[in-house]
Design goal:
18% strand, alpha/beta, binds zinc ion, single chain, 31% helix
Length: 360
């Protein structure tokens, strides 16, 4: 087995770290050409500043071998080790360490300092860098870029004639832990931020549907449908409802304007042909959107409402009267409940049928 083989395994560990929201660094411990242990970055999850990939791999390896000394072992890690990890490697008496990308900020194998070359430390560990360096550093850069994008999204300024519901108002709602998405720069939005979900495969392998809630409801209406197998669900919260911004003035809320926002948003998303699914309360809005964007919809379906009562879900977006301009303009809190699990499964099937997809 060559170095690249073990580094590829370390990269797989790094990807698992990224999926868990950790900085993507992975490590693999090898002895006599045999896999001993692996580790990935887990400081966030474990509340442990020392839980670097290398430390985790050394711990697991020492436990597996029943020895705190790892004589003859080699460690493969996707990023140049920091001083802490380099120190631990020297204590473990590793024979060799191989890393991928250099770390100009904290690297202790030559970038910032070189602990392995320190003549006053008596153990010698061989060091080699640059193995699969491009892949290792692309993974890190992609991760940090994503984090910057997310931070920018969070930082979208709130207009002073609008309110934004505190996210904790939605924490208690079961079954709606979907990734929030936002758009704020459509011409008709004038800076107001619209929230939406886009769940399910986007590669054309699933039938798509647009789920439209009505006044007094929000995307939560479709909670049983989102995530159905073989289905891509786009679920916008109309401005003034759900997790979207709440303009303070009633005058902002005209059905034509909501329809225009949805139209611009769809133009931006460029979704595939799909089914328009709507609640009873959204019938008027759905008809208007269908009239304007008819080419996009292969069918229109009314969502049934046999679900369990939604408790405080319809009230959650409105901490007080100041948030309720949309309710005053378009109608009060709804009494609808959305489809139950069985109805949602049938609805998903109807969408797939309408789009010519077979059962997943
Ligand atoms: Zn480290």
């Amino acid at each position: 087995m060559d170095d690249a083989h073990w580094m590829a395994l370390a990269l797989a560990e790094a990807r698992l770290a990224a999926e868990a929201g950790e900085v993507p660094v992975g490590a693999v411990l090898v002895r006599n050409g045999q896999f001993v242990a692996s580790g990935r970055n887990t400081p966030v999850a474990q509340h442990d500043p020392s839980a670097h990939a290398e430390i985790n791999a050394l711990r697991a390896g020492a436990a597996a071998l029943g020895n705190y000394r790892l004589d003859g072992c080699e460690l493969f890690v996707t990023l140049e080790p920091c001083a802490m990890c380099a120190g631990a490697m020297l204590h473990a008496r590793l024979a060799r360490v191989v890393f991928g990308a250099a770390d100009p900020k904290t690297g202790a194998a030559g970038s910032v300092l070189d602990l392995f070359a320190e003549p006053r430390l008596n153990h010698r560990t061989q060091v080699q860098g640059g193995v699969l360096a491009a892949e290792c550093s692309a993974l890190l850069q992609g991760f940090f870029q994503q984090r910057r994008d997310a931070a920018r999204e969070q930082a979208q300024p709130l207009r002073d004639d609008a309110l934004r519901t505190p996210p904790e108002r939605f924490d208690a709602l079961a079954g709606y832990a979907f990734e929030p998405r936002y758009v704020h720069d459509l011409p008709s939005l004038q800076g107001w931020r619209m929230h939406y979900l886009d769940e399910g495969p986007q590669d054309g392998s699933a039938a798509a549907c647009l789920c439209l809630h009505g006044p007094g409801e929000w995307g939560y209406f479709f909670r049983r449908l989102v995530g159905a197998p073989g289905l891509r669900t786009l679920v916008p919260d109309l401005i003034g409802f759900g997790k979207s911004d709440k303009p303070k003035r009633e005058a902002a809320h005209r059905i034509e304007w909501h329809c225009q926002v949805l139209g611009e948003w769809l133009d931006r998303l460029q979704p595939p042909p799909m089914v328009l699914v709507h609640s009873a309360a959204a019938t008027g809005l759905a008809a208007r959107l269908h009239a304007e964007k008819g080419g996009l919809f292969a069918a229109v379906l009314l969502a049934p409402e046999g679900g369990e009562p939604v408790g405080d879900a319809w009230r959650a977006p409105f901490p007080d009267r100041g948030y309720q301009a949309a309710l005053r303009a378009l109608g009060p809190i709804a009494s609808s409940s959305g489809p139950n699990a069985q109805q949602a499964a049938l609805l998903a099937q109807a969408v797939r049928n309408a789009m010519g997809y077979s059962t997943p």
